[in-house]
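Work package 3, deliverable 3.1, input record:
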Amino acid sequence: MSRSSNEFFVGYLKTPPKLAIFLTVVSVLLTGLGIGGGFALLAGQPDYGNGGFKGGYKEHLGVLQAAPYPMLRLPPDEAHPDGRTILLSNPGKRGAQKRAAKHDGQIVDVGGVFITREGTRLLQVGGAAKIRPAKEPASIQDFVPAADVPLGPVTLRGEIVDTKCYLGAMLPGEGKVHRACANLCLMGGIPPMLAVFHENEAPTLLLLTNAAGEAFDAEILDYVAPYVSVTGDLYRRGDLLMLRTDASRIGFI
Amino acid sequence: MSVQYRPVTWTRNKITYDLVLGFGIAAFIILFLRYAPGWLESPRISGPQLRMRAFGTCAFLLLTIVLSIGPLARLDSRFLPLLYNRRHFGVAIFFVALAHAFAVTGWYQAFGPLDRYVALLASSTAVTSWQAFPFEYLGIFALGILFTLAATSHDFWLTFLGAPLWKAIHMSVYAAYAAIIGHIALGVLQAEHSPWLLGLTGVSVGLVSALHIAAGLREQEASVAPAVSDSEGNWVHAAYIGDLPDEGGVTVFLPTGEKAALFRYDGKVSALSNACAHQNGPLAEGRIIDGCVTCPWHGYQYRPEDGCSPAPFTEKVATYRLRRNGNRLLIDANALPPGTPVPPIELEQGA
């Protein structure tokens, strides 16, 4: 497009006035469009839930089970007729396997902070107690955790997540963008769960184990984040649902 | 223009350019981090993840703008000043993208069982699956290109590598853009199904593609100059004298595949290579200023009679022989060595 030479721009000379006005308008427009575009992208951000670290440091008395993932079993009460099962993790992207191994089957005090989302909790171990033999075990001396209850074969659809981030250690702690972080958590020993989503209620979360009911190995990592279909055998341990499966029975949807 | 290497040869326009650019980036990041959470219906997002989004989105928008500047300037010369300091724009994009990468590795790859940079490569490796594809690899690839372009942006590298190789390396910005589109498509677009995300990514791709196609079509409209049989030289039609603008240039598409710039000045006509010795800028789109052909990109100047920059500058471009045939000019498509003096065609008054 030809223009008169007095509108011609040379970097080391004074910008012609008409051109300077044009460039000012363009700069303001580009900045405005850029900021507007950024905010428009944010407008599409979904609700990542209200998970997070909640309730502060507390100590809990129960029976520790190290397999398939470290968990604390609490005896039944009125609100929890099947007893309670609380998954445990260390700070960071690390499971509590090392700490739990030497107390497997013992009555222990476990100190830490709950990471809670929509009623599901994981306890990040820490503080004064961490995991130690119970100081006052008498109140649950007779408690023997119930064995896993088989509930039959199922095929479920959902997203494989690392329990800690999903429950609120990160927001969002799910989805493809978070996949690498989730895999690092699983590599570090954080328990994997299948989140099954429902239309108008909180997702159902199921702890995933291999077919023998042991901790999953690295084969699960390829299936973390995208929606998957998982076939397996459903069990209940206390109030925790567990799905025994293997990688050959997991497929992308 | 400069006869020595300096980190930056500052001019008033460059300072203004950088201030506007810096203000735009700072405004975007501050508004995104400070005000976006309060404005959102669901503001619950971890701080580091908000920072990832702020820097990532900013880098993507900047890349969209910088890739649009070239074709915009071809379609409307008023956009040429945006091209003038485009290298600083590119360096700024690299640093914003680097901030995005640090935000990611300092959060997603940190606190884990592996070193964060090992984790970046080893935590997600399903390259054969599009659902689980490690989109981070595409981001690393794009960041590597942006680093290469930023690191070689100085004129030292332009002279050291030569304009054709330097330009070829810097064309890899398109590969970086393609990788970033893949990074977005196989990353956040798989995680979140917002029409805004998809729509704005599509607008970016559409805008960049449409502007390049439009600029390309304009170039296509110009046909290669027809040959004129002659025993001496490779003479082709260059232009009708009446079509030559005063103090402006005309592009001639030669059968050799090269382009010449034809300039009318002080009642004379000369022909130079169309490619500026600095960054291959299109000289024919420049002007005659102080008796010299002046490149529209960075103001490099050449005498029309011999293609040499005036002293103390040392740049040279190829020249072409011209011949008059009635009311039209013919050009010998065989370029002369850079800096070869060629007597201009003298035009009678009123021609």
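The first strand of chain B starts at residue 235 and ends at 240.
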